[in-house]
Amino acid sequence: MASTKATSRRKTAGKGAQDAIALLKADHVKVQDLFDQFEKARSDSRKLSLAQEICMELKVHTAIEEEIFYPAAREATDDSDLLNEASVEHQSAKDLIAQIEEGSPGDDMWSARVTVLGEYIKHHVKEEQSELFPEVRSSNLDLKALGQQLLERKQELMSEFKGKSNNGVSARSQRSTSSASHSL
Ligand SMILES: [Fe+2]
Ligand SMILES: [Fe+2]
């Protein structure tokens, strides 16, 4: 959380310090592309690997929004209706993600779930980008600093999830010792 060390600042700022909204939008583009690829995929193995990637990307994205971006936006914009809606939409997405992760392409409903998840996400992204982000952009939030926090947490979660999918429990214990998990 406290990240005002001159050394680390210089290093990260040079390496494409994205503002929070740019970072989240880039995630949106990436996941939309994965959904488009999924709709075109023919083989079950390709569908499965795309769905796994979609689920991982979305779990990380929703987590960094919920842990960092939404609380900051709630404070800066005072628009709790919009943020409550967004949180409910996240929950619906997470329910579908869990069902997709438990299922497999052999199940008839499985592809339908991925398609519907794509539709949910499209709707949710549209609202974030047309309503929430402009409100946040016009607030006095430090979007660069917030972007840095999002990036760090994103990297941490990515390696945590990748470690989990490689060998069950894994990298989690490594990480949890170094980071106090209840920050904001
Ligand atoms: Fe979101
Ligand atoms: Fe988002």
Structural class: mainly alpha
The number of E-state strands comes to 0
Total count of helical runs of at least 4 residues: 7
What sort of overall outline do the alpha carbons produce when their principal axes are compared?
A: globular
| Radius of gyration, taken over Cα atoms and rounded to an integer in Å | 17 Å
CATH class: Mainly Alpha
Question: Quick one: biggest sheet?
Answer: none
* Weakly predicted, low-confidence segments: 1-14, 168-184
CATH superfamily: nmb1532 protein domain like
Mean pLDDT: 86
Share in β-strands: under 5%
- The end-to-end span amounts to 8 Å
Architecture in CATH?
Up-down Bundle
Bound molecules: fe (ii) ion
Compressed to H and E, one letter per element, the order equals: HHHHHHH
Residue share in helices?
A: over 70%
Total number of domains: 1
Classify the fold: give the CATH topology. Answer: Four Helix Bundle (Hemerythrin (Met), subunit A)
Could you describe the 3D structure shown?
The chain has a single domain, classed as nmb1532 protein domain like (Four Helix Bundle (Hemerythrin (Met), subunit A)). The protein is built from seven helices and no strands. 81% of the residues lie in helices and 0% in strands. By secondary structure, the protein is mainly α. It is globular, with a radius of gyration of 17 Å. Residues 24, 28, 61, 65, 125, 128 line the site of one fe (ii) ion.
